[in-house]
Amino acid sequence: MTAINLGFPSVACPVVAEHVDLSVDVADEISALNDVDRKAELHTLEMKAIREGTVASVHSWELVTAVDGPGTRMTLFLSGCLLRCQYCHNPDTWKVRDGLVTPIDELVARMTRYLGVFKATNGGLTISGGEPLMQPAFVKRMFKEAHALGVHTTLDTSGYLGKSASDELLDNVDLVLLDVKSGLPETYKAVTGRELAPTIAFGDRLAERNIPVWVRFVLVPGLTDAVDNVEAVIDIVSSWPNVQRVEVLPFHQMGEDKWDRLSIPYPLHGVHPPENDLLNRVRGQFEARGLTVF
User: Fold this and answer.
1) In the prediction, which pLDDT does 58 show?
2) pLDDT at 63 over 80
3) In what order do the strands lie in the sheet with 124-128?
4) What are phi and psi of 191, to 5 degrees?
5) What backbone torsions phi and psi does residue 195 show, to the nearest 5 degrees?
6) Measured between alpha carbons, how far is 283 from 277 in angstroms, rounded to an integer?
7) 3-class DSSP state for residue 233?
8) Does the pLDDT of residue 70 top 80, yes or no?
9) What is the DSSP letter of 255?
10) Mean pLDDT of the chain
11) How distant, in Å, are the alpha carbons of 31, 56, 115, 131, 182 from that of 217?
């Protein structure tokens, strides 16, 4: 996958050159700049291309089965996220500039290679992150390309930036994996550093459009497991008739080493995954309200 690191663009910056319309005069002006100014100008052009959706800042991608939506999925992990979840297992996706600038045509070509797999498994494309709605223009373009190829699309999001999702973007979304990280506003703020209300507003919008939703809730002992917090999540989710299932995801410690490598203090050091009794209690709370739980 051809890509350019956003933090340190190359002098030639071929990705940007191909996907941003530069006049000869502008190209000559950039060539005449010193290295520092040239890198700054190229970074500006990279960000312009990201805003237009002709390229994306991509953290990574993988081909997976049984997660990130139905069937076998090509999952793109985009860089950039405004939330700072205590249990985040990919803090290296937080900053847009840390991703690799990748042209949309390369990603479409890669997706096309797996059309047979998608058809055989009822799979498709999932765009995740980070937070994919940090790069809404790209998501809109990529999902439109996917639908043109008959590929099922899934958006994996916290919903915090739901206002960034245009109606045209949502027109090409077949499924949303919506993270409802807590139900009590104060607990949500403690978990993420942000407000709960935008997620609820986005969920309401998805319900109005009848876009299928799989809700995800991460169960963290001592943080999100309080009975009243779970009941508050259920109150929110049960108001959305388009919710097909709720996934109660047990907290794990697989991301702590990434926090350490980035020299970021890890707030959940020493916290253990939930025991079966706690998992069963929380799943039972959702089931008691008529929700399908996985």
Assistant:
1) 97
2) yes
3) 4-5, 100-103, 55-65, 72-78, 124-128, 152-157, 175-179, 213-219, 243-250
4) -75, -45
5) -95, 150
6) 10
7) helix
8) yes
9) T
10) 90
11) 50, 28, 31, 16, 7
Q: How far is CA 31 from CA 6, 35, 39, 203, in A?
A: 19, 9, 11, 48
**Encoded amino acid at 132, one letter:** P
- Residue identified by tokens 């290679």 is 113
Question: What is the DSSP secondary-structure string of 7-69?
Answer: SS--SS-HHHHHHS---HHHHHHHHHS-HHHHHHHHHHHHHHHHHHTSEEEEEEEEEEESSSS
Of 230, 233, 223, 220, nearest to 272 by C-alpha is 220
Read off the pLDDT of residues 109-134 as tens digits, 9 standing for 90 and up: 999 999 999 999 999 999 999 999 99
248 phi and psi, to 5 degrees? -90, 110
Work out the pLDDT band at 26, boundaries 50, 70, 90.
very low
Cβ-count burial of 24 within 10 angstroms (0-12 exposed, 13-18 middle, 19+ buried)? exposed
- Which of 54, 55, 36, 89 has its CA nearest to residue 260? 89
Tens-place pLDDT, residues 125-168: 999 999 999 999 999 999 999 999 999 999 999 999 999 999 99
- Distance between CA atoms of residues 60 and 48, nearest Å: 21
Q: Any idea how long the chain is?
A: 294
Beta carbons of 167 and 202 less than 8 angstroms apart: no
